[in-house]
Amino acid sequence: MIKAIVTDIEGTTSSIDFVHKTLFPYAREHLADFVRANLDNADVQEQLAAVERELGEAHLPLDEALAHLVEWMVEDRKLTPLKVLQGMVWEQGYRQGDFTGHVYKDAAEVLRRWHEQGLRLYVYSSGSVQAQKLLFAHSDAGDLTALFSGYFDTTIGAKREVAAYRLIVEALELAPDEIVFLSDIPAELVAAKAAGMHVIGLARHAQPMSVEAAAFEWCRDFTDVEKLLNHSG
């Protein structure tokens, strides 16, 4: 019996375009100014120290740290200090009303139904937990944060590593086969399945064509996922 659903964000609950055409450009434009304006913020200082540790450098000049952060953004590196700082910048953007978080209508509707049915809902995304909460708190469909029981990001492990999903299973205190993981990335589904979870792929535009992808069931949207889960009992 399924007791919990863990969902990815980008390409699953939300448009990839929102991340790449709204969030990332906003962070690239505003991150340096944000860091300079908040150098006395302990959280900002902690992430700058984390940048130094990532690079193996002590007392890295601010301009060099910012240059590395911009480079990591361009390369779409999944590094925790970058993700945390991006989250801080996006929080500023959400609170100022510069944008709202994109969530597909079908995802919002089905997530609400699952919550009402007593299913425990979780998010696992490469974006920071802070960024995840902001997106769902300021979504096109309103504040959806009450639907979720918890959030996971890269601090628990990379999304293509089996160990990360095993840690999520431990955190949820459920049997692996009581959990469903949703994602649009075949390699993530492979890792989650290896940890014992049920997995379903989201293919909103076109199903990935690969040997990995062929091993899984793919749904067009959350309505199809809901039907599949209801049919499977």
CATH homologous superfamily caption of the largest domain? HAD superfamily/HAD-like
Can you identify the CATH class of the largest domain?
A: Alpha Beta
Strand segment count: 6
Q: What is the structural class?
A: alpha/beta
Sheet with the most strands? 6 strands, parallel
Spell out the helices and strands N to C: EHHHHHEHEHEHEEH
What would you say the CATH architecture of the largest domain is?
3-Layer(aba) Sandwich
Reconstruct the topology from this structure.
Elements lengths: L3 E4 L8 H22 L4 H14 L6 H14 L4 H16 L9 H12 L3 E5 L4 H9 L10 E5 L9 H11 L6 E5 L2 H9 L3 E5 L15 E2 L2 H11 L1
Parallel strand pairs: 1-2, 1-4, 2-3, 4-5, 5-6
Helix pairs in contact: 1-3, 1-4, 2-4, 4-6, 7-8
